[in-house]
Amino acid sequence: MSPEEQAALQRRLIRDSLVAQVSQAIVALRRGQLPPAQGLAVADQADTVAGQIAADPDLGPERHDLAAFIRAAAQVLRGQPWPPVPQGYGSVVAQIDEEAGGES
Fold first, then answer.
1. Model pTM score
2. Judging by beta carbons within 10 Å of its beta carbon (0-12, 13-18, 19+), is residue 73 exposed, middle or buried?
3. What is the per-residue pLDDT for 102?
4. Distance between CA 1 and CA 13 in Å, rounded?
5. 3-class DSSP state for residue 32?
6. Which of 40, 51, 88, 89 has a Cα-to-Cα distance from 62 of 20 to 30 A?
7. What residues contact 74, with CB distance under 8 A and at least 6 apart?
């Protein structure tokens, strides 16, 4: 595997991990398995991480979309509806909403 392929794989793994973490938090919150106060704490952490992602050029140009998605997820964790998400993340939102029982 070339260094470029390794870097792309690493970026994909980071993206998948972060998306899974915020997705699980939203589903847990909507199912009543995560207290609202903890949801707010996770939202604050997500905003911090989103800023770090956006500022890290090693994460490639797609980092801006990932950061925007994580910021959108933070809004949902604060009890707000989904704001518009970057192209490519609509299916993630649909999956979260389905797992959480259809709320959006």
1. 0.90
2. buried
3. 63
4. 16
5. coil
6. 40
7. 22, 42, 43, 44, 46, 47, 50
Q: Which two tokens stand for residue 78?
A: 């604060």
User: pLDDT tens, 16-65?
Assistant: 999 999 999 999 999 999 999 999 999 999 999 999 999 999 888 899 99
CA distance 63 to 50: 9
How long is the chain? 104
Take residue 59 and report the two structure tokens written for it: 């994460």
Lookup result for tokens 């259809």: 102
Contact criterion met (CB below 8 Å) for 74 and 43: yes
SS3 assignment, position 92 = helix
